[in-house]
Write a structure and sequence with these properties.
The complex is a heterodimer. In chain A, 13% of the residues lie in helices and 40% in strands. Chain A has 4 helices and 30 strands. Chain B is globular, with a radius of gyration of 15 Å. The longest helix of chain B has 28 residues. Classes of the chains: A mainly beta, B alpha+beta. The interface between A and B is large, with 45 and 33 residues.
Chain lengths: 439, 178
């Protein structure tokens, strides 16, 4: 699809509105890059009437539109308009809407769509995104599915999000986490995978073993995690499609805190050696292991930079937990956290620009971010007891878990610190880790 | 002065925990959580059935009369004087009853991040093992593991519980009935 200059301008203005910026010149498409650290974003008013569907598919059509609406609303960047305010009733998605009717209710964008049952039984879902003030179609797409309608809705929401913000969406993603049940001293923990909005929860381990800190492979249907297995705590690799699992490496002690490299070829983790814990990387193809630290300290929670060149980790080598960055081949570790308190669980943003962490200070546990050089520290949320941040693939939203005594729950928060939300889960939930983009 | 007082309190807590431990251990016996070491305490059929203190050389004797656990200060792996005297008694008892192998479990309280607490628990179990080794318990009899903050014994959200959860527990393995 090609857009006229006028269309581009309108899109730019809409993005400006989204950002709370004053205005952008028509040729300023390059400025569509959002400064994700800008505060005070005014959510963009958007109208998403129910999609159209015939007979038995009418409810499905409504549900798809509702999920699109929920995704956009939950991002904090969009303000879906109450359907009761709508003037025009959309009856045909092939003709342009009456833009005037939508301008009156201050909708800046309008989404229309329909669901059509095809001859082969599959569903075709079409949607169109309209710029209400320019009176133009900004985007339009169709998807085919047999039953995974929620995924179609997330894909549509991603396209709308990307078209209007200039950033990749994150709605068609999943989260692996630890489902917790039972009393605190005998907690049963199971690995679970859910869509990013908390739906489609699937349990992938049975609860007979203590399992912790699952992480998605960036490139395959695999998860690495720590489990007590039958005897000693070890890092495992689990294929979530075949159910096949194996211990990672043949180490003499406890291995824990695993994470994949960005190319999916390595797992990096801690190995307990006497009273110390050191970082090791294992190449999944050659099975070769490389020792990366040897500091006579507790080195743990390693996370690669997105280009794979560096590793951020926590260490108590200086007396208490602080964050360090070193080369991914080991060596040259530089401390980057210098604020008051103890810093732990660093995770590098997929965009490379920030490192998220847990910070303990004065009995409180905060989730924060800082630049990889340690400057620009910002606290996103604080209290007892927040822990374990994970990044959405677009680096704009984080999840973490919070346990205020009753049991842990998963929350999401924008990288600006706004829009903190609980992610609904069937049981207590901890250790979330976001998937890479699914498509 | 403050420190002395605190150690005294820890001693009292230790006694209280030992009393409740019998129940916990019994409950654990039939559990399907797979967490207890194979052949660990709780596998002894007679365990908990005898009188307080149990027959000399029994697991109950060890737990009640010697003390199976030592406690640590916040974020510390240093052995307190109370902890050292408990480990001294453990070493004597273990020398008298060499049929037992032991597993030392290191634990942390909940006020720390998961990964760090695994490492901290591991370090606590190592410290206890090293101390026992120095008191004549050969390293070949001793395995160590860490549960991090995953298995608190005391469940509440204040200092009284946290202090009980920062522990290294010496678990007798094998030797039952011999």
């Amino acid at each position: 699809m090609t857009l006229s200059l006028a269309q581009l301008f309108r899109a730019a203005v809409m993005i400006a509105a989204l950002l709370g910026l004053a205005a952008l010149a028509p040729a300023a498409r390059a400025q569509v890059n959002i400064d994700i650290n800008q505060g005070n974003v005014q959510p963009l008013p958007i109208a998403i009437p129910s999609f159209l569907g015939q007979g038995g598919d009418a409810e499905l059509a409504r549900n798809i539109a509702s999920v699109v609406e929920a995704d956009l609303k939950n991002s904090g960047l969009f303000a879906p308009i109450d359907h009761k305010a709508f003037i025009e009733k959309i009856t045909n998605t092939d003709v342009p809407p009456r833009f005037g009717d939508w301008r009156i209710i201050n909708a800046q964008a309008l989404v229309t769509g329909r669901v059509v049952r095809q001859g082969d039984g599959r569903l075709r879902t079409e949607f169109r995104l309209w710029d209400v003030f320019a009176g133009n179609q900004l985007d339009g797409q169709q998807f085919f599915t047999d039953k995974n309608w929620r995924r179609v809705a997330h894909l549509i929401a991603d396209m709308i999000y990307e078209r209007l913000t200039g950033e990749k969406g994150y709605f068609d993603t999943r989260v692996v986490y630890v489902d917790e049940s039972g009393p605190k001293d005998k907690r049963v923990k199971r690995l679970a995978i859910m869509d990013q909005d908390g739906f489609n929860v699937r349990y992938i381990t049975g609860g007979d073993e203590l399992v912790l800190t699952p992480r998605f492979s960036p490139t395959s249907q695999e998860i690495t995690y720590m489990s007590f297995g039958r005897a000693e705590p070890r890092v495992y690799l689990l294929n979530i499609e075949t159910g096949q699992r194996e211990v990672v490496g043949n180490f003499p002690g406890m291995t824990f805190s695993p994470r994949f490299s960005p190319d999916g070829q390595k797992v990096i983790m801690s190995l307990q050696q006497g009273g110390d814990s050191n970082l090791y990387a294992m190449d999944l193809r050659s099975r070769a292991t490389t020792r990366l630290t040897d500091s006579g300290a507790i080195d743990t929670s390693p996370s690669y930079s997105p280009d794979g060149a560096r590793i951020v980790f926590e260490s108590d080598r200086g007396g208490n937990q602080q964050i360090y960055v070193m080369s991914s081949s080991g060596g040259g570790a530089q401390r980057i956290s210098f604020g008051e308190g103890r810093y732990s669980t660093p995770v590098w943003s997929p965009r490379g620009d920030l490192i998220a962490f847990t910070k303990q200070s004065g009995g409180k546990f905060a989730i924060g971010v800082m630049k990889p050089d340690g400057t620009g520290e910002r606290i996103l949320t604080e209290g007892f007891h927040n822990e374990g941040p994970t990044w959405a693939p677009n680096g704009r939203v984080l999840m973490f878990f919070r346990d205020q005594g009753g049991g842990p729950k998963i929350y999401s928060v924008d990288v600006t610190g706004r829009n903190e939300r609980r992610i609904p889960t069937p049981g207590f939930a901890s250790d979330p880790a976001w998937s890479p983009p699914l498509n | 002065m403050l420190r002395t007082k605190r150690y005294g309190a820890a001693g009292k807590i230790a006694a209280a925990v030992c009393a409740t431990l019998l129940l916990a251990a019994c409950a654990k016996k039939g559990g399907a959580d797979g967490m207890g070491g194979a052949g660990g305490y709780g596998a002894d059929g007679a365990y908990g059935a005898g009188g307080r203190g149990g027959p000399p050389g029994s697991q109950q004797d060890f737990v009640v009369n010697v003390g199976d656990r030592v406690f640590f200060e916040t974020d510390s792996t240093e052995l307190t004087s109370t902890a050292r005297s408990t480990l001294d008694k453990q070493a004597q008892w273990l020398s008298r009853y060499p049929r037992y192998a032991i597993l030392i479990e290191g634990h942390a309280d909940e006020r720390g991040t998961r990964e760090y607490n695994f490492a901290l628990g591991a370090r606590r179990s190592q410290v206890a093992r090293d101390y026992l080794a120095a008191r004549g318990v050969p390293a070949s009899r001793v395995r160590t593991t860490s549960y991090g903050k995953e298995r608190p014994v005391a469940v509440c959200d204040d200092i009284s519980c946290w202090s009980q959860n920062r522990r290294a527990v010496t678990v007798l393995q094998g030797g039952a009935g011999s």
